[in-house]
Model the fold of this input.
Amino acid sequence: MTDTPDQKSRSLVKITIQLVGFGLGLAMLGWCAREALKPGNREQLAKLGEAGAGPVLLIFACSLLTLLINGLIFWVLLLPERRLKISDTLATNAFTTMLSYLPFKISVVARVALHNRREGVPVLLIASWFGAVGAVILVSLGPVSLASLWRKGVDPLWWIASGGGVIFCTGGLLLVAGLFAGDRGLSRVHAIADRLKLGVLDRFVRTDSFKHLHAIFGMLAHPPAVIGATLLRLSDIGVLTVRFMVAAAIVGVSLEWEQGVLFASTFFMIGLISPFGMLGTREAGSLGVAGLLGFSGAGESLAVVVLVVSATESLVYLLAGVAGGVWIRPDRLLRAAKAAAPAE
Done:
């Protein structure tokens, strides 16, 4: 089937936007590097060269731990619906995380293709799975982010607001999802669709395809899966905070723990929502937020810290991604798809 001129035009616009966004990311990364290499940071750069093996290895270990935690979050949340091999899930996460530096959401496409074609997970179930992961991010980091905006730092009220907010939001998520999970929940969905009197919607919620989308409620109504994934997500922010604190200590930049928590949360969220790949956007965005929040040392000195964290992370993700690719062999899927494609 040949694309129409309008379809080709829209595709060209999308490709252009992605390439421009990726180019801007590279430009932002270059700006961060220029800030870090300014003459005023010579002392910090000298300390980086004199750093012992222990702190540097700790940053590498924390980067690897972050990768493992995120893979476990995916694995845990799917358990109420399907049990995948944990080794395959971790390998897929490592491989696709390596691709997340690239534009066009290649990492998302690769994750969907691998879980669908390699492990037989239906595409709509994968969509539900991604939705569950996103919901856990909201209930775990949403309260933390709001408390940070409110308190402008980490104090007793920040801990109360963050901890209480996470508990309240997680409980609310379990309660609401429980209302629509299972056969009873599906009946409630059918009743709502009937009241809306939208023929297309009424028919769709009774299809087998919708059952895969409905699975999101089963995942989010499962307390062990949701609580486990939430604790893992909060642990990941803790690990990322340690990475920033250790990097700051190595280069001699003053960074308080409360600043480290805020910085880590910002770094993660920007990488998550960036539509053009996370290369450059997290680094520049984090420095921009640090400046707005009035962090001491914001700018040139913090740029050194950010680049140390990013550089070590990139190396770990590259090595782990290659190892994950060797484990899951995505090339086999490509060859199988090529062989199955009809001849022109």
User: Anything to note?
Assistant: The chain has a mean pLDDT of 84. The CA atoms of residues 40 and 300 lie 8 Å apart.
